[in-house]
Here is the input.
Amino acid sequence: MQNETDLAQYFFVDDLPGSSIPSSRLRNILENLQRAQQLSSQNLRFLEGQGLNALSQFAQTAQPYETFAIQARAERSRRLFALNARREAEQAARRAQAAEEEKHQAAYWAQRKSERLARESDPKHIAKIRNQELRSRFGLDQFIEADDFPKVMAILRNLDRGQRLTDDDSLWLKTSGQEYFSEELQIAFHQREAEYFGEEYKRTGDQWHAVNASSHYRKCKKPREADQLLTSIPAQQKIVAKLQSALATTHGGVKRDLGRLDEALTLGTKAHEVTPRDFRPCTLLGAVNFELGNYAEGHSWYCKALERGAKERDVDYDLKGIFSRANQSQRQEIRAFLLAEDPIRFKWVIKS
Here is the structure.
């Protein structure tokens, strides 16, 4: 018995799916023909309905196989030609549809691009984006009250242009507008102030400007710039005590920021010797000794600072900063020392 493929090829219907599927109607018809069995009228109508006229005629007459083969082969060729034509038509339709969709998409994105360019060229949109960028850069992504918005944005634009803030704007940020005085904004503010006083020192030679510039450099986290500026000041034999102390104290604070604590101690001691009644060198010496682990010595210097006019809240703020930066072992030591000195005043170390 011929296999399914051979039988389908023998009757020239191998292009039709049902010809090789067992138990399909066409397959059953082929097997009946192979066994020379007469086909029912229903099967004959089925063949004619499928356009298999050569096979129908071959089943009903004593037609030679060679004659049938010529006709059946021609029918198969016509079917294959029609199938290819349909496939090509379907492919052409799909290509046309894809081209239409591509055209539609291109038009859609062209429209979106046109709208985006129109928005981006709109002065209001440009101003809005610029405001958003400025607010983000200066850490002001939070809600800004409508009444405060013009003032806040004017401040940001001035700083962005490298300008100093006016005294009124500076005071407003530190009072009514302090909720907008973000860390990023403070750094930018102190950066501009440091640059201004640094230029004033170069222009006038007034060393008080160098002191102010260095103080602002410290606050904008640029102690190296402050160190370079103060180191560049030429040594002078005759200088008023207050300025000499201010230079030494400021430079000592810079050295402390840089982790050069021994140099900070030397400068703080020098400042205290020049102005023994000034609390600022005492505060510096208190902080440096605490950071060195000399807690009793540091506490003594802080007490001297309080006696000379320092505010207790400022001293405690300084201690909190030292405590927060200390490692776990140092924190335990500082906690034990401060609680032994004053458990009420320094109770904040318990929760820290």
